[in-house]
Amino acid sequence: MASAMSSKKRKIADEKRIFQDKWEQLYFVTEVGAKVQCLICFQFIAVLKDYNVRRHYMTHHGEQYEALSGKLRDEKVQQLKASLKKQRNLFSSINKASESSVKASFVLSNMIAKYSRPFTEGQFIKDCFVKASEILCPDKTKLFEGISLSANTVASRITESASNIHQQLITAAQSFEAFSIALDESTGVTDTAYCAVFIRGVDENLNIIEEFLDLLPMKGTTTGRDIFKAFEDCINTAELPWDKLVSVVTDGAPAMCSENIGVVGLLKAKQNQLSLSGPFSAIHCILHQEALCGKSVQLKEVMDFVVKTVNFIRARGLNHRQFTSFLSDMDTEYGDLLYHTEVRWLSRGRVLKRFFSLREEIALFMALKDNDVFQLSDPAFLSDLAFLTDVTEHLNELNLKLQGQKHIITIMFDSVKAFKCKLSLWAKQLQSGNLAHFSAMQSLVQTTPDRLKMYSDIILQLLQEFNRRFHDFQDLETEFALFATPFAVDVSCVSEDLQMELVDLQCDTVLKQKYMDIGVPDFYKFVSQEKFPKLVKAAARIMAMFGSTYVCEQFFSSMKHNKSALRSRLTDEHLRATLRLATAHDFKPQVDMLVSGKRSQLSSQTGVCHP
Fold it and tell me: Within this chain, do residues 218 and 284 fall inside the same structural domain, yes or no?
């Protein structure tokens, strides 16, 4: 019995059976992979053994083919083998066409999301392709007809692609050395409040990744506690480490910034609860602060007059048509006036610049409409208008420098500091009558000294406003200096735990030359993490910081375009997926992987979408 127990059961794989060539003629079979396939019925024979192959042949085909012999049998074998090969090629072609159709469906669906088009336009795109193929390549029309682009399929493809991007982001986030969050809230067309969460992280190779993390619908109240609870769930769901969170940038609203009941205050309490000792910074969006500074330029009567005049011309259809025709006859540089939109950062400067350039034509047109505007013939008012035009243009130039993605926070703050120096220079120059940097004022005949003194005072007030704000950035100036100018910063001014590494760095001539060649932030990719671990970690912290909520502002513009009054039934799930694809930069959908998961499935009928 012991002997029987010790003996192993023999497996077929252990017998090392091989296909015998003589079986082709004897039993009309061929070898496919490691299996035997019948050339007549295409059935696979389970066991690679003469007895099993012979039994299949005799049972199913022996009576019909046994009479064949010699050359006739050889020819029949070759004929059957050719037929099997043809069938395989056909199935292979069908499968390849099927996969291509699915891939095309994914790619086109992703483009629909990328360009914020309704899901229902998928069918329109397909119809266009079919019609074009009927003219250009009639033999390929069936291929285009095989692309599934129904509204449900497009919605499903977009959701799967967005999920794939999100998974790539979550995977990459696990290796972040540091990350920060941009948080902003806005209300959609259906009066639902949405909180947009963007993440900016730095990986072990000091590459910056900046992507949309999540869209949080706020169905009830939108207090600081409500937003923080949704944000906390978002971070925990993504399994992001709280100890790697170095900063949060917000728009400065009380619900965001309050130390007691705001998101920032609750976040600091959360860090204390988790006993996290790492440095954390709460940042008020640099763009919002710059815009608030700009509003301190008080020439309200000038702006009110401009807006009133523009509305008189543009808000009435007849006036607008006559004015554009009038400008065309006058052959002016601009063909129309612009509306002023308070919420748009650059609106005021562009409106004023266009209005000032067309001031003479506007005065003539208003006179023709029996609505004389005496202000446009008043030298004092024109001087105020020119000054406001120049100042807002300078502010717009600064605003444009601060806009964009993946800006390093130190460079953004450098732009603000440079603008403050310019303000100080302009105030002195205006007081002395130097209008070198005020082109609109230069175009006027003369500006009185009293006016110039008033403008100089306004510039100084603007400078004071800039000095009053940006405290959160000023608190980080030592860290900014260490990051941006590591070879020039005073070692005694930095944190003690960084001083020894900083001394070694400043004495490294090779790294100093590399810094001179490429500058920050690329310089830190050449700094050894083994030799300078604390300096590299400090650099990663600065590189990970958002300086503004610009990405959120862009996101909400795209959201309002996608979930408009005409697409108000778009679900939160589909809205989130569409915006993830529309805003993705560092990650793209892995279409080939998604297609391979579909196999021969041409379309998805799961779920119902509202385009």
Answer: yes
CA–CA gap between residue 36 and residue 30 (Å, rounded) = 6
Helix axes 533-543, 477-484, angle to 10 degrees: 110
Residues 304 and 429 in one domain: yes
| Cβ atoms of 287 and 402 closer than 8 Å | yes
433 assigned to some structural domain: yes
Helix axes 70-114, 121-136, angle to 10 degrees: 130
pLDDT, tens digit, 9 for 90 and up, residues 196-221: 999 999 999 999 999 999 999 988 88
**Token digits of residue 386:** 């020119």
Beta strand 35-38 with 29-32 is antiparallel
Whether the predicted model's global pTM rises above the 0.70 cut: yes
Residue 66 within any structural domain of the chain = no
Domain containing 392: what range? 296-472
**pLDDT bracket for residue 115 (50, 70, 90):** very high
Same structural domain, 537 and 574: no
3-state helix, strand, coil in the chain (%, to 5): 60, 10, 30
238-254 pLDDT per residue, tens: 999 999 999 999 988 88
User: How close are the terminal C-alpha atoms of the chain, in Å?
Assistant: 73
Domain total for the chain?
3
Determine the pLDDT at residue 607.
Answer: 39
